[in-house]
Amino acid sequence: MSKAKIALVTGGSRGLGENMAINMAQKGLNILLTYQSNKEEADKTVREVEKLGQKAYALQLDVAESKTFDAFVDEVKNVLESHFGSATLDYLVNNAGIGINSPITETTEQDFDTLVNIHFKGAFFLTQKLLPIMADGGGIVNVSSGLARFSFPGYSVYGSMKAAIETLTRYQAKELGSRQIRSNVVAPGAIETDFGGGTNKNDEDKRTVIANFTALGRVGIPSDIGGVVAFLCTDDAKWVNAQRIEVSGGMMV
């Protein structure tokens, strides 16, 4: 019996990240997930993965604080050995993120820096730091947004950072191809989670607007996304590389 592969999911304690972790576990992957502050939610996700017969472990990480990444990688190495019996990761999912809705005229430098640090700098350098312990033949999945393709007022910095991640994905695919490491990007549309204040879940007027913009006529749910990410972390996707996959139900088409 082949050894189960291991995926690290940042922001894997709730919302999209939780659903990604569960879907990957259903496909036979062991899960290492990160959380920023809510250990209780992270432990719940760990238990859900374990119910599916897979191993799981949660580590605290603030992806905005790149100076902590060296210590985090040391933690990952220790957990891989002690909990998973492995020296390497197979897949990395750069999912952690926040949303700040602010018009260009009102965006502060602090908000700008926060979004850059989380959505671009953090993903760039965390990947860089983890590459030495990633197995050849594995993969990276970066999480973007439909807002990198279409525009809604207030998301200029967020959307720009997601566009940067999409470009970075292609460079990763090019530079890591010699190690047979694939890199792809998944771009969700509007999903009903707590992200950005939870308006996609709780604001009925906004939900109606989104549904009218979407070919399939509804707001997305986390389970619309997790299975696509899980697919990219399997051998079924071994020839999918440097691709942007939008999972939005056909928003703004």
From TrEMBL:
Swiss-Prot/TrEMBL keywords: Oxidoreductase
Coiled-coil stretches noted in the UniProt entry, renumbered to this chain: none
Protein name, per record: SDR family oxidoreductase
Spans through the membrane: none
Any matching Pfam family: adh_short_C2
Species name: Flagellimonas aurea
Alphabetical list of InterPro entries matching this protein: NAD(P)-bd_dom_sf, SDR_fam
Lineage per the UniProt record: Bacteria, Pseudomonadati, Bacteroidota, Flavobacteriia, Flavobacteriales
Annotated family: Belongs to the short-chain dehydrogenases/reductases (SDR) family.
